[in-house]
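Give me the fold.
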Amino acid sequence: MAGQYGEPHPITAEERGYKSYKIFMDGYWLGVAGKRGGVKPEFANGGTYSFENGKYHEFIDFASWDSTLAGADILFDYSAEGAFYHQTGAFPNGDVIDEVQLRVPALENLTDDRLEGVWFLESATWGDLRFDPEKNTGEVSMKIYAFPIVSYGYWNKNTGSFIGAGVGRYQFDGKILTEQIEFSTWVEFGTQFAINVSMGENTYEQHWQGNTEKWRKAQIQPRKSG
């Protein structure tokens, strides 16, 4: 709803002209923001988080605007009341961070919750393109389902460089995954996919328009500061 990043005072997302999402799930987080009416994310970042001694601790694995932020960890004061979440801290360079978020409401019930959680891409075929961890050295693709939101980030863990990100809404009935895209590096705004899903033990595969992806559910491994 509002944010301050080294500026004199917080400014609302509407005043800034941006729409921003932050997704927390099972020790992992993703942030995706874009201009209102835009199609591609202007900013994206992500990593892991933990709560320590009454503080919120955020570890950054990538930040689209500054690869040198990869590896940083930031300690926040926070409060969570009702649908509102507020966090304050500072970037490594000392610039103040002050963010207020409002929980995204679900407009319907989730039919099947088996996708809820954090997933990492194991392999994929997109037309003539392939994703293979042994060949795509250092590349990581993470997807978070936190109903009603689905988000994803793609980066190189060795360099901290950003590759792509996206966010939208989803529904899953046990066989068909429906994704409605809001911001994406690769997909046009408003695109809706009907994706065939087959669930495995801690894995799932999705097939659509000749593309195939295999994802594995993340194991929760909270990180500690230092």
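Residues 139 and 202 are 21 Å apart (CA to CA).
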